[in-house]
Each structure stands twice: as structure tokens, then as C-alpha cells.
Design a protein that fits this description.
Length: 110
């Protein structure tokens, strides 16, 4: 599953980009809603549900709030540093638990 992309603004606020449709490639034909936004000096974070669903041995998922809090600390970082930092945060969270779902994410910045 693909959760709504997160547009992280320079002031630390964020917006979920929910316009669209189902995951790409599942249906032969489907009309997607089209939306627009200006990236400006914001950060765009696209990800699969495996990121927020990553669970530790106490059965606590990583969750959206923890993801947004992490992204707030990375607003001035390069996309590659954000990705490596998030991989580290996820590993620290799940520790020795097996990865149960894919964790795919993409960071875009100007």
C-alpha cells in the first residue's frame, strides 16, 4: 500500500497529499484524480506502508507521528542523508524483529 505522500514545509508543518487513487499498476484501467502543489523549499516524502507499520518486539509500529517528527529534524538535510537517517531510525526501532513488509521511500527537495 502507498500512504499519502507527506509535504513537509520549512516551518515544520506538514500536509498529506491524498489526491490520487489506488496503488499504481493494480488495475488495468482507472481514472486517477489529479492534484497540484508547489514544492518550493518544502520536502516531499513518498513511502509505502511498511515504513509506518514497522513493528518492534513490543508490537509498537513506527507510526506516522514518529515519521513526521523525524522528518521535522531533517528539513535542512540532503535527501541521501534523510534516507540513510530514516533507515537507521527504522533499524533502531525494530531491532531484531524480522521485516514483515517492504519499506520503500523517496525524498524530493529542490
Amino acid at each position: 500500500g502507498h500512504n499519502p505522500a507527506i509535504l513537509m514545509k520549512k516551518d515544520g508543518s506538514h500536509e498529506l497529499l491524498e489526491t490520487g487513487g489506488p496503488v499504481l499498476g493494480v488495475f488495468d484501467s482507472f481514472e486517477f484524480e489529479q492534484g497540484k502543489f508547489a514544492l518550493g523549499d518544502s520536502l516531499l516524502f513518498c513511502y509505502t506502508d511498511g515504513v509506518v507499520d514497522a513493528t518492534n518486539n513490543a508490537e509498537e509500529p513506527f507510526e506516522m507521528e514518529r515519521l513526521v517528527d523525524f522528518l521535522k529534524t531533517q528539513l535542512d538535510s540532503a535527501p541521501s542523508r534523510i534516507c540513510s537517517g530514516l533507515r537507521r531510525e527504522l533499524r533502531n526501532h525494530i531491532k531484531d524483529m524480522p521485516q514483515l513488509d517492504d519499506m520503500t521511500f523517496l525524498v524530493l527537495k529542490k
